[in-house]
Amino acid sequence: TVDTTALAGMPRVDLMPPEIAEAARFRRLQLAMGAAVLASVAVVAGLYLHEHSGVTSARSQLATAKTQQVGLQQRLASLQTVKDTYAEVQAKHQLLATAMGQEIRWSFYLNDLSLRIPNNVWLTAAQATESTAPGASSTTSTSTAVAAAPVAGPASIGTILFSGEGMRHADVAAWLDSLSRINGFASPTFSISKENAIGPRSVVDFGSQASVTSQALSNRYALKAGS
After folding, report:
1. What is the pTM of this model?
2. What confidence tens digit (pLDDT) does each residue in 48-98 have?
3. Residue 158: is it exposed, middle or buried by C-beta count within 10 angstroms (0-12/13-18/19+)?
4. Distance between CA 141 and CA 222 in Å, rounded?
5. Distance, CA of 91 to chain centre
6. What is the dihedral of CA 211, 212, 214, 220, to 10 degrees?
7. Among 31, 73, 95, 189, which is 20 to 30 Å from 89 by CA?
8. What are the residues facing 126 on neighbouring strands?
9. Could you give the strand order of the β-sheet that contains 121-133, starting from the edge strand earlier in sequence?
């Protein structure tokens, strides 16, 4: 039996030549460097594969977006007729609003006047003048009216003239008061009020006028906000 304790206490002598030991260390160094190079190559390859996958995915998304764009352009082209029709309708609405923007429904006003005329007053003529442009006017007339200068109001868009008869001057005042209560008429006044005789009866001939304001417009064809 060998006494290992005794062997452990004996001196060790390395009989391997130094060249062989140096060569062994060099091989270990080469193996370590080779492993490091392989690890670097693996990391680079992984990064390349990841970037290549990202580029492929981006190209696929780009191709899908282009396909969708072509489809949307085709759909937009198919809806062009609808867009043109809508634009044409809007243009006609604008033209109608321009042409009828100054409309006053005189039939309503004549009916209102017939209900508001005082009992002792009757009209013999009425003439309305609407402003259509600076320096221009259009006239609607039921008969020859008493000539009088138009009354300019702050929101005036025209003038309406009346001629008629009453039993007394107080009836003319009542008529002017009644006229002032009609929406769309302003600043009623008389241009003439004189007594006259019809047979044995005395009457008062009068001429009156009032400004027609923007409140008289029907606004039936006005463009609504957002249209």
Report:
1. 0.50
2. 777 777 777 888 888 888 888 888 888 877 777 877 887 888 877 787 777
3. buried
4. 26
5. 15
6. 180
7. 73
8. 162
9. 136-141, 121-133, 156-166, 201-213, 185-198
